[in-house]
Every structure is written in C-alpha cells, then in structure tokens.
Protein 1
Amino acid sequence: MEKETQKWTTVIRPHTGWFDINIKEVWDYRDLIMLFVKRNFIVTYKQTILGPLWVVVSPLITSVIFTVVFGGIAQISTEGAPQFLFYMAGNAVWSFFSTCLTGTANTFTNNAGLFGKIYFPRLVQPVSQVLTSLANFGIQFCMFLIFWVYFLFNPSVEGGVVRPNLWILALPFILIMVMAFGLGMGIIVSSLTTKYRDLAVVVGFGVSLWMYATPVVYPMSQLDSSPTLKILVGLNPMTGPVQAYRYALLGCGSVSVGALLYSLVWTAAVLTLGVVLFSRIEKTFMDTV
Amino acid sequence: MAKRESTRPETVISIRDVKKQYKLGQIGGGTLTADLQSWWARIHGREDPNTIVGTDTRLWGTKFMALNGVSFDVYKGEAVGIIGRNGAGKSTLLKILSRITAPTEGEICIKGRVASMLEVGTGFNGEMTGRENIYMNGTILGMTKAEINAKLDEIIEFSECAEFIDTPVKRYSSGMFVKLAFSVAAHLDSEIMVMDEVLAVGDMKFQKKCLGRMSDAANQEGRTVLYVSHNMSTIRQLCDRCIVLDQGRVIYDGDVEKAIALYMDSSNVNVPHYDLVNVGRSTTGAGTRLQLQSLDFLDCEATVFPREKPVRIRIKWYANEAFKGVNLKLNLHRRDSTPIGITHPVDLGPTEPGQVYETTFSLDASMFGEGQYFFYLDMFEGVVGQGVCLDKPNVEFSFEITGTDLLVPQWHVGWGPIHFKPVIVDEQKRI
C-alpha cells in the first residue's frame, strides 16, 4: 500500500543489463580493498625468513640472470644503456604487468569459498590484487632507483650511460595504463575460467611466452633486420609502455606517442570488456563455478 | 520476549514471486574444447560426442526449481524464522537475499543494509591476528574501518578472547575462533540480519549469549532478523513469526508454534520407533538375561508432546529367565548431557522365562518446561544404585515438550528444565 512512497536501497532482479556496473559500490568498500592488500602482504611473507625482502630479491636475481644470459652470453645490444639497468627496468614493468594479470586471473575460482558465503562487490578482489602488485612494484622501483643513481653518477662503469629525460613525468600515466591493462586482461580471464578451466593453464605459460613478444630482454633496434617481426612486436600493446618506461629512465631506444596511444586504446577496450564481463558473471557464477 | 505490536509496520524486505532454477546434470563441458564440440555437433544435428554413453540423457538439462514462486514481506523489527526440510529452498532463498547468486525470476526489494551470516568467520585468515581479523571480517560484512574502530572494544569483550586478541587465529581453539567470528557479526550495524543456523556455535553459555544478543537486536533496536534453522527451540526463542518452505514454495506463514507443528508433521525426520535389538549396551552382560526390543512413542506427532498430555511410551522386552521383580526407570538428561533426574523405579515383574512382554507407560509431562529432553531406559534387578543392570540400551530417546499456558506463555531456557507445580498456599489472611 505504501510501497510507492518507499525508497529501496537494494533491488535484486534476475538478469540485469550488460552495463549494470556499480563502481560507486566498489568505492564504498575501499576499506576492504586496503585490508585485502594488507592481507596479501601478511599472508605471503609471514613465516618466511627474508619476509618482504623477497620482493626485491627475486627481481634482483632475475635481472642478474638476464644480464648474464642475454647480455653476456647472447651479446644482445642494450642501445648504450648499462646492461643491468636495461634488464632490470624491462623486467620491472613486465613483472608488474604479469602479476596484475595472473593475480586477478583466478579471482572467481580461488575465492569461490568466500564469494559463496558473503556478498561484497566482487571487483574489490581483483582491484586489491592489482594494488598489491603496485605496492610490490613500488618497492622494486626504490631498489631500481638506488642502482640508477649509482650508474647516473658513475657513467664510466661498464660502459653504459644513463640519460634520463622529461618523459619521466609520463611514468605514472604509463604505469596506470599497464596496471589497467593487466587488470582488464585478468578479469576477462577470470570471468571465462568460471566455465572453462583450461584458460587458467593457458595464462600460466602464455604470460611467460608473451614476454618474448615484448621488447623486455632485447631492444626494438635488434629487430631492424626483420621488418615482419618488427611489425608483429609493434602490434603487441605492451611494447609501447615497456619502450617508453625504459626510454624515460635510461634514454635508450625510442618512444612513440603513436604506440602509447595504440596501447591506450587497447587498455580502454580490454578494461571495459573485462568490467562488463565480470559484472555479468559475478551475479550467477556461484551456480557454474 | 513479548511480541511487539507495531501500529504501522514498515516493509523492509519485499519478496515478489522469486524463482530459482537449476539445471540438473552437468553444467557445460568444463573445458572450452568440449563445449565447442558439443555446439558443433548440435548445429550439425549429430550426436553430442561429450555425452556419457549409456546414461539416460533425458534427465539432463531438466530444470529443477529450487524456489518456485516465493513471495512475502518482512516488516521492520520482525524476527522471522524460516524452516523446512533439506532441499526446501531455505538456503537458496538466503543466498539470493544476500546477493550471492541472482534469482531466475522475480524481484526482491530491500530497504537498509543487509548483513548476511551464512557462515561464521567468513574471510578469517589464520595468519592474521584476532584484531586484524576483526577488521577483515567486519569490512567484508560491510562495515567501514571507522565503524569497527568505534566498536572494537565491545567486540573484543563480547568474544571473551581479549588476552589472545594479538595472536594469529590459527593458534586459536575452534571454540575461540567461532566466538570471535560471531562477535564481529553480532556487532554489525546493519538494519537487516540474515542468518543460517550460525547460532549453533560455541559452548552453551555462548550460544545463549548470542541468542540474547540477536533477540535484543530485533526487540529493542528495531532491527530485522531472518533466521534459518533446524533447531526448533532456537526458532521459538528468537522468532515471532515463522515461514515454512516446502519444495520451493511458502506453505505456511505466521505463528511460530503452528509453523513448527506443520513442519514436524510434514517432515518425517523424527520417526518415533526405536528398534533396540541390535544397538549397543555399555554395561557388560546387559541385554542377555533380559532384553529391551523396541520403544515407541504413542499419541504424538514426531515426539512432540504438549505439556498437558502425558508422554506415552510402549516398550517390548524379552525375559530370558524367571525374575521375581524387574525394575524400570528413566534417566533423563538435557541435550548437553546435563542430568535432570531419574524416575522412581516401577516394578514390572515377576516374569516367566522366554516370554516377550509389551508394556505401555506414561510420564507426567507437566513437570517439564518447554524444550527437548533425552532419556536412557534402564531395567534392573534390586535397589537403585546397588542392583544389577539387566538392560540399558545405548540409545538416547528424545522427546519435545511444548507448552501453551496462559500464565507462562513462553518458557525461558534460563529457568531450567523443571516446571514445578505451583506452591501450595497454606494460609492467607488480611493483616
């Protein structure tokens, strides 16, 4: 009788539209996002000897190995930048992207227990995963800066030169783009893995293969001899950000606004598709997972 | 717990013709290739290569309605119990209400924040301390950090875990774990609380505390509680309205006692017949010279007896030898094994060897308060405490006493199990 006058806070209906996405609700749960980030840290590093040091130890070792294998044994050029910094920078951006992707790719399957018992905006989970990756990246970046400053003031060491430039100001934008791209890819995969588990396997090795299609361990100039390869690598949306990141900090290679815009279009498309798909799946995934 | 009369009830939950359909059989092939194969076969009119040979595929894809048109309104401040057999749709309804899954048809409108507790300790992480988990669990349940800060002390105190609050919860005993978890849930500020049998946690004392807290929430703070349980006595204590679900439909909505009676009637879970021939005996030699063979509760629906009627029981027993006297007594206790008392022995002898006897007897129920009671049957020779046990099957027989008394409309658990007869007034005069 008085229903017309009432204002409902929540209306639960069967099939809501494709674009029924409640971003404001995710914002309301920002405390939960931060707690998830904190939890991810606590859970990963509790009862380990090195604790959070692992965040810097693993990229350090990876960079050393890359330097030895690709720089030392394979003699791949680093376009005048110190080899160690070249690999460290490339690896940092790439691992940031890959942890964003793999961390969110199993959102539904890994959290089925939690999601099956309680409602909160499901996007909270992937967003907090990505922020965890960002925090890890931040720690790694600090370590990078130490080496970077060292090479900056000791240009003669190892022959490489560091030539930072104004593109440094664009770094936050580039990183946000990488993060959004990883998040978008991850939530698309997570939405599809509720039904098709094979994708989880594909993502595992797919990401490590994808790295070789991105100029992480080699500079773009290395591909000058093969125009086909150059075009193919250029089509990779991650090429632009990796190139730009390295150019801004080390001054090696080149940066192209076109490539960055191309990546931006990809990011926007993937993220939109991801969020739409994710919101679609989250309502009924408990019945299919 | 007096029932509240609200002059103008405000609807806080409005459920309109909600249906939830599940497909029987396998959902999808599980892998992308299998689904593509099935799809390819379907559009080409061939047989699906992924069906299991020899299985009846007719049932596959058959629709199963977990909820088949459920409609009701819940008003502000009500404590509504939802009961029904397993598979009646209770949990599905709660899942839809708490937005874990979406309905297939219908609409639910909710006014206010919903805190759903389908499990205690959702999101608890063993590596994190009690304090950290309070924040974690609280925010998952929809509180903000500031709200938790304001209530932290109260939560810790309620949980009775104050001295362990900075210890990782993986070191907690399971009892402490649920106490802490429930404390967080009990301090939610939400206007609507949805609970699935979560009160069955912790020790008796804590359970009582939880129930009290919940009924306070409904009675004094004007919050709305939706409670699903198989435990009728908690339903009785907490709820002032009860809905019975059966096969995805509401079959009754209204008075708690009538709902419980209907549910007890529709569910044949408590069949009051016990076969005692093959059950264990804890005393050596019991059951050999004399054997209790069966026990039936008479004149009742699912062993529920109103207080004004006696509890009628029929036993069959076999005497292997001639006894001069055989005594029978009942050892009564409560759910938690707290003894209540024994009945004065009654002599059923003498017996003839090799004879089966059928004995019907009554127990005066007027001395019980409302609730569930348990007893062991003890047949012995001689004096209580010094005699020889002839038979005592290891079976807890249980019955439930319901009371409708104008002077004592509701029995409070805290009063204990015995409903004594009124005192005898010897004298009264004007002074």
Note: Residues 19-288 of chain A form one domain.
Protein 2
Amino acid sequence: MIPLSWYLLVAALLFSIGLYGVMARRNAVAILMSVELMLNAVNINLIAFWRYGSVLSPATDTPTTGWAWAIFVLTVAAAEAAVGLALIISVYRRRDSVIAEELDLLKN
Amino acid sequence: MSFNIGEFISSIFDLTAGDYLASVWGTEPWVSVVLDILGILIVATIPLLSVFFVGLIERKVLARMQDRIGPNRVGGKYGLLQMFADVVKMLTKELLVPAGADKVAYFLAPILSLATSALLFAVVPFAPGVIGTNLGVGVFYVLSISSVSVVALLLAGWGSNNKYALLGAFRAVAQLVSYEVPMILSLLVPIILASSMSTMEIVEAQAIPFVIFAPISALIFFVSSLAETGRSPFDLLEAESEIVAGFHTEYSGMVFGLFMAAEYMGIMFMCFLFSTTYLGGYRFFGLEEIVVGNGFQLGRLLGLFITIFKGALVFFVFMWLRATLPRLRIDQLLNFNWKFMVPLMLMILLTVALLDRLILDYIPQVGDAGRAGIHLVSNIIIGLAGIEVLRRSARRQRQRHNTTSTVLAVAENEGAPIFVAAEVEPAYGHDDHGHDAHAPVPAH
Amino acid sequence: MTLEQVIFILVSFLTLGTGIVVVTNRNLFHAALAMMASFLGVAGLYILLDAGFLAAAQLLVYIGAISILIIFAIMLTRRMMQAREASFNSQSGLGLFTAVATFALLAAVIGQFWWGVDAFNGRPDVPDTVLQNTVSSLGKAFVSPEAYVVPFIVASVLLLAALIGAIYVAWPTVHAEDEA
C-alpha cells in the first residue's frame, strides 16, 4: 500500500530539482532538459490523482481526465523540445554559443 | 495433487508446465513469484540461445545462394558447432577500449541493445495461451521498446570516439527514426482490423490472415521491418565499404558479440511480429486447437511449430533479399520512405479505417470473407495507383537526370569522356526547389 | 514494508537521483543519459499507478524521441561541451534557495492536505475491467464533442506548427552560411 502523499512528494522533489536546473544552469540545452524534468513531475501528479481520485468521482465509469491531461502535456513537451532545440541550434549557428547569459543582444 | 514425473514431462510438451506446477504447488504467494521468474528466464533465454542456430542457418543459406558451401568443419558435416566456436573465439579475444572513449556510453550501449531485444519477446504469442505477458497494449509496447533501442546505437557511436562509428550512428538514427513512421502506420492496420492492441487478440482475430485483407500494408511493414533491423538492402548503418562497420566499429570480443546477438534477436523478433500481425501467428486451419484424447493439448505444440515455421519463412525471405539486392544510398532510402511509403501508408490506413467502420456498421452480413475481399480490392487499387505514381516520378527523375548530365558534360569540357558527367551529379540529389535535399555533410 | 513499497522506493530513488545528476553534471552528454534514466523511473511510477499505456507512451515519446533530439542538439553544439568553464551561473545560490523554498511550500501543502489521510493510504480498489478500458475510453474521449475533441485538434495543430516552425528556424539561411 503506497499512500498518495508519497507520489506527491516524489513529484514535488523532481519539480524542485528541475526548477533548480532551470535557474542555475548556463547551457540552454541543460535548461531545456530541466524543463522536461519539471513536466514529468507534473505528469506524475496528474496520474497519481487520476488513480487515487477515481473513488471520489464515481459519476463516470472510467474517468480519463488525468490521462488526457498527461497526454496533452506529453504532446506539448514534444513540440517544445523540437522548437526549443531548433532555436538553440539556430542561435548556435549565429552566435557560436549556447550559454543563455551570453545571448543578451536586446539588453541595454 | 501430488507431483507426478510423467505428467510433468507431458505438461512440458504441451506447454502447460506452468499451470501444472501451479496446481501441484498450491496457491501460496511464493508460487506465482517463482513461476514468474522461471517464465521470464525462459522467455529471455531461449531467443538468446537460438541465436546460435539462426546465425548458423543464415550463414549456410547465404553460402548456398552464393554457390559456396559455408561453414562445414566444426561439429561434423554441417558445421553445427560453428557458432559455439565463434563464441569461444570472441570470449578469448581481448577487449580493447579506444582511447578517449566515453566509458559510460561505451559499455552501456551493448547492454541496452541486448536488453531491448530480449524485452521485445515478452509479447510474442508462441502458441495458444503461450505468451510472456499478454499486455493489453502489446503492439504499442513493441513500438516503445524498439524506439529505445535506437538510443543504444547512438550511445555506441558517440561513446566510441571514432568518426566512422559516429557517422554510422547518425545514419542509423536517421534511418531507424524515419522507418519507424511507416512501421507504426502499417501496424495500425492489424490493430484496426482486430480492434485490439494485444498481440494475442490480433492472432485470435485472424481466422483469415490479415495479409489477405491488406497485402500492400503487409509489404510496407515488411520493408520497414527490413530497415528497422538494418538488413540488406537497408544495411547502411554498417555499410562496411563506406564506414568500416558503423556504430560497432570499435567493439571487439564478446562486447561485439552482444551487439551481434541483439541484432539477430531483433531480426527474429521482426519475423515473429510479421507472422503474428499479418500471417496469423500460430493459427493454421484449426490445427492449433487439437486436443488428444487423454487431455494432451497437441494443438499447443503444433502452434509452436507453426509459429516457428512462419517466422522461419519470413526469415528466409530476409536472407534471400540479403543475397540478392545491392545496398541503397542514404538519400534514396530516406526519399523512398518519406515521399512514397509514408503517404501511401497513410492513404491505406485511412481507407482501411473508413471501410472497416462502414462494413461493420452497414453490411455486417457479408461476414469475414466478404470483409476480407472488400479490403483486398481497395488495397490493391491503392497499391497500383501508388506504383503508377512511383513509376511516373522515376521516369521524370530519369529524364531530368539525363538532361542535366548532358548539359554538364558539355559545359565541363569538350574533351572529357562522357562518363565523367555522371559524377557531376552530387551524391545527395536535388529536390524540386533546387535545394540540396539534405544538409550538406562536410565530409571533405 | 511490502514489496510494492520497496519497488516504489527504488524507482523513486532512480528518478530523483538521476534527476539530480541531470542538473549538476558538467558533462552534458552524461546529463542527457541521466535524464533518460529519470524518464525510465517516471515510466516505472506510471506502471505502479496502473497506467501501462502511459508508461509505454513515456518510453516512446520521451526516451525514443525527445532524448534523442536533445542528444543530437548536444552533439551539434558540442564545442560547448568541451569548454572547461563553469556550468552554473552566478545566481545558482539563489536558484538553490528558490528550489528549496518551492519544495518546502509544496511539502507543506502535501503535509496539510494529503499526508495520513485514510482515504488515500492505498490505491482505491477499482475493477480490473475499468482499468483495462481506460485506453479505449480515452480514445473515445479524444473524439467525442462532450470531452476533448477541441483540445485534441488544437494539440495536433500545435504539433504541426512545431514541426514546420522547427524546420523553418533550424534551416540554414544564406546569411548564417556567410557568417560561418
């Protein structure tokens, strides 16, 4: 028997780890990887609530809200990775750098 | 119920040993754990061991096709123990790790490769009721596991610190990821026809094998499974005349042996998958349901042989193609996939889905045979149209090629022999807009 | 402690441990490998939550597609990997503080509302048929006007837009070639 709160704690930890990566890493690819970790943490929560919450909402036979949301998150993550990496490669071609701090053309 | 050695041996032969042991040992919790572990060991080990025979058979058949004898020294007349000798040789070889190799990636790659190949066998239905695990999402599981195996090639290529290995890995990923698309699409056809993703239920739904429903889609699945396993004519990922041995250039000894075992297991699995999804798996005119008078389920044993026979048939075609066809170029490979197979397969998929819904909703009285006939006709029409389109585009391309080469030959210089012109055409052709079809590779 | 709990703890350690490697390892390629392991752990959590289909989707999309894309991006920008410079920026301390604070907040909320609640001590018993039917009812939900047909179509348009956009952005322009 695994309590729901365990899953939530794991998801919260993974989210925080990802958040730290987003804020502290310099390489844009590493930032993107950290964002993917955060999205995964969200998905864990969605599925955990789907599995444990189905007793609370017996109105529908097979509640699919959690799954549907998780799959949309998956879709958005795929789209985000594709566009994000295309941007990173494009930036790398022009500026010869993928360090997020050095991309400060619009500053000042 | 007490243990009876005779009944146990009989239960091994009709593939019900698990049920028999469960009935002997009772229902304590450890029984299911022990039986599960035994089952996992059997399902993972037998494909690995049969690599010995599959490898030998391939070498013998290829040799015969090329008018040679093949291995015939070790283990008697037919070279039966050749592969064992090879394994001993590999085990005694030194394992050389290249300088500057990324050790984590270098050693993770063969393990991952073998593990994914072994995992695939969990959902192969070998006989009625004999399957590693009857997952409800069996086909989807297969796709997800085989997409992980791409990672192993990438790791091997990157970890080896070798340009040939890296080029091989890039080719492999480009090829495998592209051909995954028609493979997924062509696997959706049996899923729609059986209205289930479980491999077991797909087999059960094939009173008429699906190859009769959708021969073109079966052909596309076959071609993309050739590409997915990196077999000739799609063996660009280890084209020895161009990139030494591709992603496993730097591997030696038994670590290379692991790659080879994984490759053969992947091929075997693809053969089984083709026979499961399109050829009716273990079904053969009700032969698989025979039960002998004293309760011995002969049908299950026959089902196992039928599965192996159908898989071997597909494997024979694999070998036949390998002995016959030359290798494709990477641009031909990718163009053929994206510009021909994927659109054709999308058309077939839409037609099959629509027709099947219409038949089941409006004319269910035509029965299974009528349904098969309607699908067959629609499939053949689409296939013929596709081939016609292909022929026209090939003719157009040939004309354009001829004109450009003539012009270039004249422009180059008048004294040059005419065959020089053929080399002027860049290795990666042009598309309609005059761009290079692929990003230029700075190889020179 | 039951077997299920032990498995849960092992899988969580895999997920979180490799997650920490992702954000701390200097070698980006190893970080990407660790990210794959972390995704694998998340897939394991899905299986523990009776969502096998999503676990397979996780493998297919995250490990089979996104991770390979990321590794390709790392290889294409690999000069950055060899550069022996700091992998953390100047605000990494602040980042650590924010992450810890976020976790504290989330943990407080979890402790307040979900910790030790009897109703959530174990997975509720749902008939197996319901769990097995989830995939098919999800499929129906995606195309039924009462449920998710609009988000479904929006998601497909998003994917198409991302496909075209990624090709357009990453296509080498004449300008970029001149610079290089």
Note: The radius of gyration of chain B is 25 Å.
Protein 3
Amino acid sequence: MTTTLKIPPSTHPYAEIIHRLEAGGSMLPDTEENLMQIIGIYKAYAVPMDFYWRDLLYIAERVFLDPLPFFKYFLPQEYLDLPNHYAGETADFRVWQKGEASAHPELLEFMDKGELKKKLPKLFHHLWHDRINMEFAEACMRAMLWHQGMGGLFYDYLESEEYLGNCDRAIKAYFKGNPLMLGLYKLFPEMFYEKVRELSYYANLGLFWEVMAPVFFEMSDRYDAGEFKTVPDAMDFLVNGIFIAAGRPIYHHVYIGDQCYELIPKSKGFMWLYEAALPYVEAVFYRTAPFRGTKSYNAQAQQVPADQKDFHYGILYADVFPVGTAGIPPTLLMQDMLHFLPPYLVDYYQQYCRGEDDMLIQLGITFQRSMYNVTSAVIQALRTALLYPLDDPNPEHLRKNRQFFEAQMDRFLRPEARLNDIQNQDYR
Amino acid sequence: MPNIVEIAVSNDAFQTLVTAVTVAGLVEALQQPGPLTVFAPNDQAFAKLLPGTVDTLVQNIPQLQRILKYHVVAGRYTTAELKDLTTLTSLEGSPIPIACGDIFEVKNATAIASDIEASNGIIHVIDTVILMG
Amino acid sequence: MLTPLLLIPLLGAIAVAFLKPQISRPLAALSSLASLAWIIYLFTQFNLQSGAIQFSEFHRWVEPVGLNYSLGVDGLSLPLLALNSLLTLIALYTNRNNLERTRLHDGLILLINGGIAGALMSQNLLLFIIFYELELIPFYLLINIWGGEKRGYAATKFLLYTAVSGLLVIVGFLGTTFASQSPSFEFTDLQVQNLDLIPQLVLLTILLIGFGIKTPLVPLHTWMPDTYVEASPATTVLLGGIFAKLGTYGLLRFGLQLFPTAWQTIAPGLAIIGTVSVIYGAISAIAQRDIKRMVAYSSIGHMGYILVAAAAGTELSVLGAIAQMIAHGLILALLFFLVGIVEKTTGTRDLDILNGLMNPIRGLPLTSALLILAGMASAGIPGLIGFAAEFIVFQGSFMAFPIPTLLCILSSGLTAVYFVILINRTCFGKLDNSRAYYARVSFSQQWPALVLTAIIIYFGLQPNALLRWIEPTTTPLVAELHSSIIALRE
C-alpha cells in the first residue's frame, strides 16, 4: 500500500476496495477460489460469444433489412469460418495463441447436437430452443442502442447526413425490384434509418465481442497452463488486451449481392475502445433496463430512475436469484454458459447449494464476480489512459487517482450494487 | 523559422512521433500555415504506453490519425494565454483539460518544454501520450 | 369386523416401541396402511341402504359399571375413520429428517390412531370416554417432547383444557344416563326422551361446552393457537386434522342425535356461536404474522361452519357438516404439512421474512405450488373439496339461518383475504438474497402432500364419492330431528 503512505487513507465507504485498486488490485478479492471461478466462467462465456459475434456481424452485414428474418440465427458456414482478427494464423494481432480463427470446436459440436446430444435438423434444435440464445446478444445490442450518449462519436455519426446518404444507397440497393418496400421507404424513411442504426449497433457489438472471445479463450488456456496465479494477473491481462485492441476499427459494412456498401467506413476512425468497449460496459454492465418477468417496477413511484444515466439494472447490480423465467436475457446467457462450463467448475458447483439444480444461479453469481473483475480492468485501463501511474511520486497525482477511484466506487453506493456481496465467498 | 514538422524531425526526442505522423499521413496537415498548437509527446511518452497499443494503431491509420489529432489544437496558445484557460478543443473534437500554473499540465501529461515557436504554430512537449475520454 | 382397527395400531405401537429403529419405521407405516386398507375393505362391505349402525360388535366387559365393548360405525364415523388412518400415515411421514426418538414418536402416533378410532367406533358412552381421554397422554407427550420453543407451556395448556373437556363430557354422559334412567350406557339404550326439556338443555349445554373446547369454538379456543403453533408439524397434522374433529363428532353424535328436541331449541344460539367463531377466526388470521398461527386461526373459522350447519339441522346442512369435517381435515392437514416443510427448510414462519418461495431454482417451487392450492381449497375455490363441502353447508343452512349463513359466506371471502396475504408474502415476490440458501426439498419429504392434494382434487371434482357414504346416515338423523320438532310443537 504505497499510496496510503503518501496520502491519507480514503474515508469512502468502499475505502478497503479503493486501497486495493490503488495497490493495483481488482474489486474482486484475490483468492484462488475467485480466480478459478472467473477463469472458468470466461471460458464458458467465450464459446457462446464466438457465436454471438459471428451472428451479429452476419445479421448486420447480410441479413440487413430482411423484413422477415426467420433464419437470422442460422449462421452460414461462411460466417462460421470467418477468420477472427485476433486468433489463428491469419490474425492481425494474435492474442489467442493456440486456437483457430474459425468457430470454436465446442461451439460447432453444440450447434450440431445441442443439449439433446442428438443430431436433428437445425430447425428442430432452433424451435426446441436447444441452441445458442442469440436473444441475449440482441438484448445487449438494444441496451447500447437505447442508452445513447455514453461517450464516443458513434451516435452522432448515426445522425449525420453522410450516414443517412450511405443508408439511402444501401436501402435502395437492398430493396431493388421490390416496389412495396421501396414505397414504404419513401413513406417512412425514418423508420428504415432507425432500423439501419440498430443494425450498425449489431456490427458494433459484433466487432467488440470479436476481440473479447479470443481474449477469454486465451485467459482460460493460460490459467490451465498455470500462468495466472492471482486475480490481479487476470485483470492485468485484460487491461493489456484493452490497450492492444483499443485502436481497432469499428465499422459497418453491408454486402448486397457482390457489392459492399460502407455504411460506416473504417476511415471514420471509430475505435474499439471509445465507440464499442466503453459504451458497452456502461450500457450492459451498469445500465441496461429492467427485465420483463423478474420484478414489477412502478415508474410513477420513482422506482425507475428518471435519467437514463441512473439506470442500474446491469450485471453489476443484478439480483441473480430470481432467474429461471423464460426469456430474461441474463437467464438466456446463463443457459448458454451452462453448456460450456469447464469440468472443474461443474465439480465446484456440485459441492455447494443445490448442486446440479441451481447451477444456473451459481454460475450467474460467478459471472457477476467475473464481470466485477472485467470492470476493474476497465477502471484500471481508464486510470492508465487518463490519469497517473499507481506509483507516481507526485502526491497530487495520487490524489487525482484517488478521486477517480472514489467516483467509480460512488456508482456502487446504491443498495442494489453487489460489490459488497462479492467480497464474500458465501455469496453464491 | 522552421515549421512544426521541421522542428520535430530535427529533434531526436520525437522519433516515434515523427514516424506516427508520417504513417498517418499527417505531415502535410502539420505543414499548413495554421496556426496550430501541438502538444508533442516525446519518445519516452510513447514508450510508457502499454505494449501492443502502438502496433495496433500503426495498422489502423484512421484511428491513429484520431489519436494524433487529439494532440493538436487550432490556434496559437502560449503558456501565458493558457494560464486563463481550463480546456481546449482538439482537432479530434474532444476537449483537452489544461492546468497551467506553477506546473504546466495537459490532462494527465506534464509539459517538460513549452512555447517552442514554429512558423505555423507553437509546440509544447509533454511526457505522456494523452488519450480522449 | 371393527376390532382390527383397534388391534392393528395398538399392537403396532407396542411393536414399534420395542423393535430396532430400522424395522420400526416401516412397521409403523405398514400398520397405518393396514388399518387404512381395512377401512377401505369396510367401505366395500358397507350397506348404503341402511342408516343404522353397522358391523356392530358387542362383548360384555365390566358389567357392574355398565362398560361394554360395543363397537359400530355408520356414515358419520366411517369417513372419519378413513381420515384418521390416512392422516396417521401422513403424520408418520411428516418432517422425518433428523427426527429424534423415532420409535417413541411413531408409537405415540399409532396409539393416537387407535384411540381416535376407538372413540369414533364406540357405541358405549363409557367406552367412548376411555378412548376420548386415552389419546390426551400421547398428544401431551408429542407436544412436550417434539414441540417448539414454548412446548412445555403449550402442552400443559393443552392438557388442562382437554382434560376439562373430558370431565364435562363425563358429567354430561353420567347425568344423561342416570337422569333418564336408561338401562345401560349403550348409546342405543339411552332414553333421553324421558327427560323434560329443562334437564335436557342443561345436559346438552354441559356436553356442548365439553365438545366445544375440543372443537374449539369461540370463546373456548384459547388453548388451540398455542398448541398448534408449538406442536411439531406431525402432531399438528393429527391435532387439527382429526383430533379436533372428535369435538364436532361429539356435537353431532351426542348433541344433535341424542337431544334432538333440546338441540332444536338452542339451535339459533349455536348458529350465532358458530358464526362468531367463523368471523373471529378469519379476522384473527388476517392479523397474524406467523404463518402457522394464521393457519391455526383459520381452523377456528372453518370449524365454525360445521356448528352452523349442524345447528341448521336440515338434511343438506348436516350432510354438509360431515363433509366439511372431512374436507377441513384434509385441507388443514395439507396446510400444516406444507407450513411444516417451509419452517423446516427456511427456519422461520415469519411472514415478514419469508418471500419468493416460488423461485424455481433456489426456492421451494413444488411446496409453494401446493401451498397455493391448499390455500385455494381452504378459501373454497370450486373444483376442490373445500368448495363442495362449504357450498352444501351454505345451501343447507340458508333456509334455517339466513343471516348467520350470509355472514359465514361473507367471511369465507375473508378466508381468501388471509390466504392471499399468506401466499403473496411467502410464495411470490423476490427471494431474499441474504437468506435464500435453502436446502432442496426432496420428493420423499413431499409425497404425503401430493397424496392429500390428489384426494382434495378428486373429492372436489367428485363430491358424490364422499357424500354417498354419509347421506344414508344423515337422512334418518334429520328425519328424527324433524319429528321431534313436530312432537315439541304439539
């Protein structure tokens, strides 16, 4: 605790955690159990994420404005083989050392046989909901679309004349020879633009997760190889990953026939960090929106904040216990992760609570822990980028860091925050 | 009087910056009459960035341009003029917080040399690459 | 034909108490199953054309005193006998985990089974009293050994009240026999019609208080909430399900059947007491914070219906009264059984603490679902046995006592109020994160509730399957009541 020697200790309610962050730690306590849990869940998250990003890009680039997108979750081979920019031989920057650039083998096996472990026509797996729950990915996308103004230039661009011009060309090309849709477009252009904006967020989120999937796979591999010893090790790896990926482009290309329409060209200079990662963390980890089916809120009684920036329904505040109802996005994700848990995590869950029966909740809590660690990585990355090193000799700089950490912790002062819960191993 | 680019090229401390500006194709822009105020990170500043950050940026020119533009402000601002200001708006579009008192600080960077006059503007040398946000 | 119903549980109790725990447990279940099977056999042999006592057994025993071993059943007692054995089986499987001293526990439960069966079958007043008093001791021990925090207090209170009840019944019986100069204590030998109306009224009142304590009726109920709450779930199932029914059984058998004239005279008063019980029970239940206490008070209310129906004395209402005894026995047993599971698993009965038990993963979904169903049955939702019985009660009583009946109907709406409170607080809402690490409720803990639920639904859809056994007895019973009224008027 070098920092506290130079400036007086924090008096914040989360002082202990702030001091831990100042010492280069994570909000998640550094225990072996926590490390095992979060790495295990990163791996289980990475497999469906490998599907999410491919399908998000597929929808954004190919399905586009299909008015009846029944088969948007039926990923064509082309997108299963789509080389990840960060994995395999062809990678621009190879984060994922061992894996291939195409879809993960566990994902392919699951898509083939599903939970039933039977090879059935794809349509039956789909209708039986024995598949990857893309609805979760779309819920995240919608959270980003709905919570605007979280930094970055993406949103402003979506309102610009340039963007609308690009959209116009793509829409006209897409519905060429379809007088009905073209007529509708003439009557209600804004509706079409809004739909395309949504698709741009599909692309945005897809490109964000394209990075995260191999990062999480890599973390799991490194943990298995014994390279991670502590929770801060895992966090630091994420911080590095954030800086490596920070300058990657965010764009939206649409392929109509053989023609590529650049709705958001790479040349706009949109960056992974500013236009995707930070808004994603803000929208999905912190804000989102109340989920239908878990709890009733009365907006008149001010149970829902008036300002969108005060929304607090993300994973960091989530009450994981009332899951199990069909269609709740977190439950969908937990269901997806359940299929890909590493064996050590399955064994671990067997020992606690109701074992097999409430594994969904147990892994949900683990996921919450792991996302506190990811958020810690984001906080540390922001501190690195915008503030001062933790060992800065200047006390004034340390005080600025302290202010930043305290401001971040202020967001967890509301009673819904689970920061206190995850300090304790009994929360499971 | 030499222009901004010429000053940078002539100084050994700006090798990374010059490479980046060249790769990003911003040389011409910095030779415009301006005037411009440039917060120029020296080589140590770039070295402080986490590994991989620069590699990725060099592969993605528009993104590199954006970061570099964040270090440039339209107009000529000397330290004397900056004393009364708290923010400047960069060419990138995002604001740059300025604290110019006993110590001259640009966001989380500290100026290690200031008011270097060029024909088309002014250069302040900073010890950290500043980032938006 | 009827002796096995005494022998099986009594021999079972002795065997269970002395055998190894591994053998004693299945043996206890086996003996309650055997007596249940025997009763089902009796149902097949029961003559539906006759309202008289059937399967009679008679042996002289202690002649000087007039105590005979005289047994028999009719449509009033046979369904209650079945309920008795069924609930014994349920009680044996209530909250078995970590039960201490199982042999004594199971032995006492079988003893109670035998005692209650004996009381229901006795056709001799002295024999009835012996059985009526016999099961107090096992109940006292069950409450005092396996009860809750204040079990000592509750057990003593229970013993005092019910002993007084027994004494009053003895006084009533002796007075009736001697004053009427009946030749023996045999039920069929009693010649109450020899008495004038005034002594009849006095004797009936004594019996009413005696049985009223047991039922319990307001204002004689004060022992009951404490006892029900402190007793273990298994004990409460038996106490509420069948033991309290001895009170209403006594009212019908030794009040209505024995003193038709006097009964008719005080009927309006009885209807008022019944109605007060109903309203008092419902309103008190609404005020409770403890779910077991809430169910206990609901029991007071539902027993009131039986008194109102019995007081009305129409063919339909008496039929309804007996049906309500069975219905209430089943529903209350289910409620106490489920509340027992909830308390055992969550460690509390506090409405303010419990929440979100419907949670499919971390809650008690099946238990909650059954609790909701039990609440619906108790509140008289159609399609469940509670509705069938209460509807007959209301329909039968309305002509005789319109205003008390209307008040009863109204407060059956209050039943829905407190069950909605109970269910809304415990089953719905958000599971509390800091508490919700409840153990799983295994199927072996739950199946008795499923059995009860199946019966409640079956009789709810097919009330005739129950009523056809009762009707042959109530029809002549009510005919006699009516002829006595005509005689009285003349």
Note: The radius of gyration of chain C is 21 Å.
